[in-house]
């Protein structure tokens, strides 16, 4: 990773935030900003409610984990048929999502257990 990261303590404000705190004061959050070396200003921002003791590398790792989650969700929808359910009951939908999740876990474990040389041949 070739970006620089900075963390600032902030107090987010807004109508919903003031209603939720009910006069107890605005909550303290941390703003994580990613500043790539080739850019003039930060390009991505994350607002975190993780504990103050969370280190900068842990904050960055957690923020970047979103890409992995989105990629896995897209794979489950396109490859494993998560979006193909057409039933009408909650138990059936729950069953379908559970089976797709297990299939995704199996595929991930299979992919991780192979050595790089065992992947598709040229």
Give a brief description.
By secondary structure, the protein is an alpha+beta fold.
Secondary structure layout:
Elements: E1 3-10, H1 15-21, E2 29-36, E3 44-48, H2 56-78, H3 90-113
Antiparallel strand pairs: 1-2, 2-3
How would you explain this protein's 3D organization?
The protein has 3 helices and 3 strands. By secondary structure, it is of the alpha+beta class. Strands 1-2-3 form a 3-stranded antiparallel β-sheet, with helices on one face. The longest helix is centred in the last third of the chain and has 24 residues, at 90-113. The relative contact order is 0.10. The model has no long low-confidence stretch (mean pLDDT 85).
Radius of gyration: 21 Å
What is the overall pLDDT average? 85
User: What is the count of DSSP helices, taking H or I runs of 4+ residues?
Assistant: 3
The order of strands across the largest sheet is 1-2-3
The overall strand count is 3
Proportion in β-strands:
15-25%
Q: Specify the structural class.
A: alpha+beta
Q: What labels describe this entry?
A:
single chain; 122 residues; alpha+beta; three-stranded antiparallel β-sheet
């Amino acid at each position: 990773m070739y970006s620089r990261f900075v963390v600032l303590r902030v107090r987010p404000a807004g109508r919903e935030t003031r209603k939720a705190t009910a006069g107890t004061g605005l909550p303290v959050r941390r703003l994580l900003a990613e500043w790539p070396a080739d850019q003039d200003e930060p390009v991505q921002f994350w607002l975190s409610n993780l504990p103050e003791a969370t280190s900068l590398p842990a904050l960055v790792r957690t923020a970047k984990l979103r890409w992995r989650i989105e990629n896995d969700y897209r794979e489950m929808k396109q490859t494993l048929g998560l979006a193909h359910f057409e039933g009408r009951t909650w138990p059936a939908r729950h069953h379908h999502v559970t089976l797709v999740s297990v299939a995704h876990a199996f595929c991930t474990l299979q992919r991780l257990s192979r050595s790089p040389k065992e992947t598709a041949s040229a």
